[in-house]
Amino acid sequence: MAEHPGFAAAIGRTERREDRVTPALLSRMAATLDVPPPADGTLPPLWHWGMFQHWLAPDRLGADGHARRGGFLPDTPGLERRMWAGGRLDFYLPLRAGDAVSRTSTITAIEAKHGASGALVFLTLRHEIARPDGLALTEEQDLVFRAAPTGLRPANHVPPAPPGASRRIVQPDAVLLFRYSALTGNAHRIHYDADFTRGSEGYPDLVVHGPLQATWLAALAASIAGRRIGRFSFLARRPAYVGRTLTLEAWEEEGQVSARSLDPNGAVCMSASAEFPRDAPDET
Fold it and tell me: What CATH number has the domain bearing residue 182?
């Protein structure tokens, strides 16, 4: 597709928000994920997605529940479907309850392509999240904008995980999807409006959040290594649906932990990898 004239002007655009790590965030996220709250008040990996929310009035939302584009994110004419395709995070300093934090977001790249499913726009968004005394983490998000889907991707069956891999079974239900949407300020209707999901987006049922799967996989990877994560990356490969079992798997290989989520048919919904600092500094 031809490059939209607004894309070049959007590259380098920045936005800054401020927030605070609260005990309420920790307790609500822990209850939603069905895990104990962190005893020392430290925010576990990827729980920061419950921060920096910006709720908009209804007339500023699109039909899918996302913010209308043309503000911070540029307009993508004819490509109204938005997907969070993956991301990469580097962790430096821990975030703890009571910390005042800031997030500076920058659009670093926009590329228009034409794939098998039609026109696509890929946008890379970089976040720098800081405590008053320094940078806590950086994150790159890969967003994809496309037209209405014409069909689901074929299953991507993979070999079994290596012997000794850690596994966890999760059963995402509608209550979990609703609560996670609320905690992260995500109004995308594919996670709670089944009629919209089937009729407008072409999915057979409510879609499990990619960030929710990434959060599960990061926790499983950290439990294997027994150390804090230094770098985490994830890639969405296939939708996962409400009420269908997800198998989370993780194993050590080549100095890192590989992880993935699989649907009941053995297809990979998300793949991820975690790296761990050899000599982790004191987390002060």
Answer: 3.10.129.10
